[in-house]
Amino acid sequence: MRVDRLYGQGRPVVSFEFFPPATPEGEAALVRTIDALRPLRPGFVSITRTGAKPREAPVDLAARVKQLGMESAAHMTCVRDTRDEIAALLDLAVAQGIENVVALRGDLPVDPSFRRPADGFTYAADLVAFIRARNYPLCLLGAGHPEGHPECRDPERSIAHLKAKVDAGLDAVVTQLFYDNRDYVAFVERAQRAGIAVPIVAGIMPVTNWPQIERITRLSGNQVPDALRAQLERTRDDEAAAMRVGVEWATAQCADLLRQGAPGIHFYTLNRSPATRAIFEALRRDGLVT
Q: Where in the sequence is the domain holding 278, given as residue range(s)?
């Protein structure tokens, strides 16, 4: 099922994101995580692409998720690939019954000798336009950045880049992680003023490990509010306490977002289930999700 059809049906859509593990042990852990979250009946599960796995890995794992009875979306990044490689990947996705793709540029390699393929793509909007031009029967999701992209912190330019992707054919937008809901609200308002009318889904990464979130936010440039930072600093050496703080903060975030009309919450799970499950169950007790 195309996941864009889930939005606007009178209830928020909750979705989860995983990545293909690099080891057999990681694969076993991921299966346990998926089994733990399956009873929550997510609207869909997305599978990201990592540098440790081949480009086909998200499609293969997304197909396995569908076999488990959940809708899925496969990430496709284009910064390293030629048009023929992307076309082959899209053909594989359609052949395996995938109906949803998250179309991204992908992170630029840190290797200074890296050069994009001559027959490749410069921006995610180019990838979206390519998919639409070839008439693939796919729902296309894309990324939004409430605090600005790491390579572009100008809010208005970021919205212009997002509009280019939407105009090229995106059906919905999922935001990068954020910890201050004011950033999301302001982002949505700017998008709407620019004429962007597709659903803008809030991307939430619950804190489960403070040093890990420090690394992620340092790379992405996302900010951690002082109030949350102060709580986490006190739990630096206590992972269980850090997760309690993170779950409490993310639960309050999600409740506020849903009450303000966010069309959905997309959880970046880091292939773990306890924090996401705890947040979901709290939201369900409050009647905010079903």
A: 3-285
